[in-house]
Design goal:
Chain A is about 25% helix and about 20% strand. The first copy, chain A, has eight helices and 17 strands. In chain A, α1 crosses α3, α1 packs across α8 and α6 runs antiparallel to α8.
Chain lengths: ~350, ~350, ~350, ~350
Amino acid sequence: MAGSNFGTLFTLTSFGESHGIALGGVIDGMPANIEIDFEAIQSELDRRKPGQSDLVSPRKEKDVVEFLSGFFDGKSTGTSIGFIIKNDDQQSKDYENIKDSFRPSHADYTYAEKYGIRDYRGGGRSSARETVARVVAGALAKQVLNHLDIRFSTYVCQVGTISLEQLGFYPKELIEASLVRCPNESTAYKMIQEIEQTRLAGDTIGGLIACCIENVPAGIGEPVFDKLHAELAKAMLSINAVKGFEIGSGFAAAAMKGSEHNDLFNADGSTKSNHSGGIQGGISNGMPIEFKVAFKPVASILQTQEMLTKDGALKSSEIKGRHDACVVPRAVPIVEAMAAMVILDFYLRNKSVHL
Amino acid sequence: MAGSNFGTLFTLTSFGESHGIALGGVIDGMPANIEIDFEAIQSELDRRKPGQSDLVSPRKEKDVVEFLSGFFDGKSTGTSIGFIIKNDDQQSKDYENIKDSFRPSHADYTYAEKYGIRDYRGGGRSSARETVARVVAGALAKQVLNHLDIRFSTYVCQVGTISLEQLGFYPKELIEASLVRCPNESTAYKMIQEIEQTRLAGDTIGGLIACCIENVPAGIGEPVFDKLHAELAKAMLSINAVKGFEIGSGFAAAAMKGSEHNDLFNADGSTKSNHSGGIQGGISNGMPIEFKVAFKPVASILQTQEMLTKDGALKSSEIKGRHDACVVPRAVPIVEAMAAMVILDFYLRNKSVHL
Amino acid sequence: MAGSNFGTLFTLTSFGESHGIALGGVIDGMPANIEIDFEAIQSELDRRKPGQSDLVSPRKEKDVVEFLSGFFDGKSTGTSIGFIIKNDDQQSKDYENIKDSFRPSHADYTYAEKYGIRDYRGGGRSSARETVARVVAGALAKQVLNHLDIRFSTYVCQVGTISLEQLGFYPKELIEASLVRCPNESTAYKMIQEIEQTRLAGDTIGGLIACCIENVPAGIGEPVFDKLHAELAKAMLSINAVKGFEIGSGFAAAAMKGSEHNDLFNADGSTKSNHSGGIQGGISNGMPIEFKVAFKPVASILQTQEMLTKDGALKSSEIKGRHDACVVPRAVPIVEAMAAMVILDFYLRNKSVHL
Amino acid sequence: MAGSNFGTLFTLTSFGESHGIALGGVIDGMPANIEIDFEAIQSELDRRKPGQSDLVSPRKEKDVVEFLSGFFDGKSTGTSIGFIIKNDDQQSKDYENIKDSFRPSHADYTYAEKYGIRDYRGGGRSSARETVARVVAGALAKQVLNHLDIRFSTYVCQVGTISLEQLGFYPKELIEASLVRCPNESTAYKMIQEIEQTRLAGDTIGGLIACCIENVPAGIGEPVFDKLHAELAKAMLSINAVKGFEIGSGFAAAAMKGSEHNDLFNADGSTKSNHSGGIQGGISNGMPIEFKVAFKPVASILQTQEMLTKDGALKSSEIKGRHDACVVPRAVPIVEAMAAMVILDFYLRNKSVHL
């Protein structure tokens, strides 16, 4: 396991570099006999792809997924699903200037230190472009979870200092209506302005994404090390540029008293508040699962910065390539994809608890 | 893998309930021929155990670890290490009143929903008492990492609203000198007062723990899904009562610009700032690894609360048993143990990158 | 994963050396709410233990299993099961003479080469004494499989050149009625004589064990790498002294024609012959699963042999300690235990194929 | 893990059906910075592909591997390697007649029972065509092992009743000079005649493959469950049509005495005989690793046989499609590929034994 595999029963093993021939992966453990909506998968990829608006990277990728196995007559066969997404718009010459030097806060230096060799074009394997494979697997997971009526609402809740006041489960239409994928129109407007100003200054800016999952039945999750929110945390922190994760009350819990934090029961087993974020002792309690993910500003800024050369010199240089001024709008489907993979995986794992 | 296993090459598989005969586990993948300081392991357990002061649970446990295999002539043999810690001070009758009802914000309800059976005494397997096994494995990991000069500094940096201003690498002596394991004397004093007042009110309070790891060589961590900080996040969120994790700049990154967040290089490959928290692209860069962990207030408050009975009724009841008013002082060695296990595991995994 | 873990959903992680304090393990993934017959577990251990007759090692071990967790009110809780078996009759001084030398065809040399350190007393971790942990896990697996009416018949079908003519599913009473666990009385008698003569000559002898499993439903097993018989093969070859595995027609298939080997169907899906051994394409077809396991003669013979010393000298020496002249009678419960663990694990894995 | 993943540190995850668009996989854990001979990989595929001679399936596949990631400037980057092999010569209409019926001794029935859906064209995922992905991964593993001077000799040692008398390490030239991949010319001639006669009779025939691996250093393999030969057994039994595995003395050991079976040492740690097959206690001892693999006759015979229909009727039918009269000649590179993957995986695992 050298890092390209995720999941226990529903698994994705992915491959591909930013400027290679293609990216893709193998999904194993897909339940059998599920009718697939292939257009829905492609539309998830379209949500992630660059070039959607002025706010994001202008790289033009069609990001068309080609499935090579695992389906028959439009249904999943239960065997492994191979797929590829070809790279079209590689402008590798943009990266000639970093061939022998390391950009600050990128993975250039750490990959070189680890492997002694690196594909410097667009960050190679460390590029966020690898997340296309996650979106494909997540889209399949969501189609399975649809049969269980499990629903996701994922959206941008903060960009820079502009934040959405009211969290909760927002309908997808509201989220997708906004260029920044923030479901509140006036907040979204401010976020767009913030990103636009940042972009014009040749800078980048961070943000937060919220995810709310409804109808996860009680009992999903494993005790001790494989707590459901522990795996969600790993899933989120494995996404490029993520610096933090919190479930339910999160960091605010540190300043709270037990008497205010405890989620008192209703008679039907639901709770009056949801500081637990839908998970207690690592296992879902039937309430909505609610977590937030923090993204740092993209490291590729369009300003002159000092890079480190292989030979240990510092040289001023500009980063070329096409980058996002703010990554969170495009990261929404990635967060949702990873969440869906985790929930489906743990749903399947839970089936072995009873004979 | 039903949740009681952690790690890939250096692994802990644990067992045990709060009020069972014993807890313990199996550690596999311990490097061979390492001379062991058994007293140092016991002293880590002593840091975690209840009854250390008025601030924490008065349960009296000796928490003596007995090793049953894996050592010969005082050295590790490289084969699996079995160990047990016996339970001495079980007062199971304290739990008679929750036999048929579920405490709010505990795992009582979710375990019952998942398994259809539960050991209600002290929370059974969901009790934080299971962390004794983690401390044993972490203590062994730290002894291995000592040979590589990798050092840990883990301490309480917030209790309620009282927080430590300056983070960094504090010497263990300073941390252990304080009842709350906060290395600044005056902040520690305020934290103790805060906990004491909370305790007297029959309430509990949350907090934050910071961990700083020095001398991790560059190149440790795997790409894509098994990023080093993703596994650290999972490790931390798997600890009871943890609600959040952040690495480096963490949630503050959301409000930052790329131009301020980027860590510019020095000529030796170190960086002028460390917003990355020592990890870039999932792989260590040689800078200190710095993260924070948020703990909720303990759910067992000594006030009358409504519980849910098996039959769907709500009844007012008091939680008995012996509990911590604030869990973070005792959680410090647990956070450190999990961090040590992750670092050693990934250090060993990295050995296979080159022939 | 340093070798002491077995299984995917139903897992055993074991520890312990021949002359250490105790052996044991952790069983994870036990289905919840199964009523346990603890005496039945102990009686499986009694079948494996030394000192049962003149035919086997005279070492006197009570082999009493102590469960430390995972049960409540006589039922499995679904959480991890810790257990230990104490060593009583360690005569470590028997092994002083091999402290600095390697016995032929033992693991002494290979452990020393691998680890650079070894517990030479009784073979340490390489001793077949580790199989006690397997028998405990297998006994639990069998109790679960009982609920599905899955039954095992495991017996000795060859000792030296004496072999049982008719294979099939023999009742346990017939098998256990014989000192060598061969269900045919006259064959058993010849086997006993063969072993007795071998023992008196200070020598040892090999043998074969057959295993037949009835009522495994069709559909158990995974495609490609995790074929059901592939995992059975691994399980069997992981047992000390095993040199070969065959399923159904096995090695005889090499000399067969397709027209005679093919198992023609009956209208109900069963087959007229069972050369497939109950598994086709890695997946059970509902017919009895039938395989055979070859054991080499025990390496510890009571004759003078040349050992290799640490310093590269050859010295004539006698092996002390207490050993079996033929290992297969005591290996029967071990083979059955491993088979039960595999079947249960794959039964549980199969539950995730359908939503 | 639904069966399409193999290995712990060096892993292959594969996909693809006999008559789908393409087969392929992801190789993860490839050591970095290894210069690759891509032609050597293709030539391994050529050894496996159909249409090589009259003896094997006439299906015409170019079996050209396309690598999509994981290499840069002709060297491995250490990150995951995606690859595909397109299907060219699918004659799916050959399989219309089995759309609703199950061929005897194929996986048709078991896949239908397991998944409730199956790609009936050419056996779908259960087809031996999936082994192309194994050959690619094995070819890469061999190139890594070349740097350690670890060498493989794999050849046919039995077809029907014709068997090679002398086993051992034969040079590749001798093996490849023969259409049946048997290194002895006169035995090979008899085998060819046997296969030819069988083919003309519309029948198929089984066989044995021997594998000998030289220069594996002592110390490779893990104790207890992950013994080196246990994983080799699993690897071999996971290949289509394999019914048995034996290491060293194998099944013959059952009839041997310890005094003749024990491998006595030479002063340099090598042994005078090699009944152990190069592995003791699950760990290599530096002697050649020697094992044999038994293959059943291919189930697809060109004779009228009874099939079972979905509706439970038996109907006489002929199998169409293009099949091998004897699979062992083409299985030689598959056996070698799997062996290479296991040896490399365990070589890498062993690196973590010492700090």
